[in-house]
Amino acid sequence: MNGWRRSLTSMTKIIILAGGGKGERIDYKIISQMKEKEVVHKRYREEAEAAKMMVEEEKALKQLRRTLVPHARPVPSFDLPFLPQQYACIP
Residue 35: is it exposed, middle or buried by C-beta count within 10 angstroms (0-12/13-18/19+)? Predict the structure, then answer.
């Protein structure tokens, strides 16, 4: 009867599909690295622009402070007496 018995397990060829994802992982790594570099460059650009604007604002503020300083009026000379002109009325 041992000849009539079927084996409980059967041998089949295993197909491994894990190698196909390797290329996709490499592509994903490359794309993610490129995106990360873009983000870093964008952040650097924004920081440089902000620093440039801050310097420009400071220069403008210094210039504004220079121009808005209250200057003293010249002292009138009291050598000659003040003689107001007569008002001419036109009828």
Answer: exposed
Q: pLDDT value at position 13?
A: 83
* Best CA proximity match to 23, nearest among 33, 15, 31: 31
In the chain, % of residues over pLDDT 90: 35
> Which two structure tokens, joined as six digits, stand for 36?
């990360």
Q: DSSP H helical segments within the chain, as ranges?
A: 20-67
Kindly report the pTM of this predicted structure.
Answer: 0.45
Query: How many residues in total does the chain contain?
Result: 91
Q: For tokens 């902000």, what's the residue?
A: 50
Q: Residues with Cβ < 8 Å from 64, sequence gap 6 or more?
A: none
Say which residue, 3 or 68, is predicted with more confidence. Answer: 68
Residue 25 C-alpha from the chain's centroid? 31
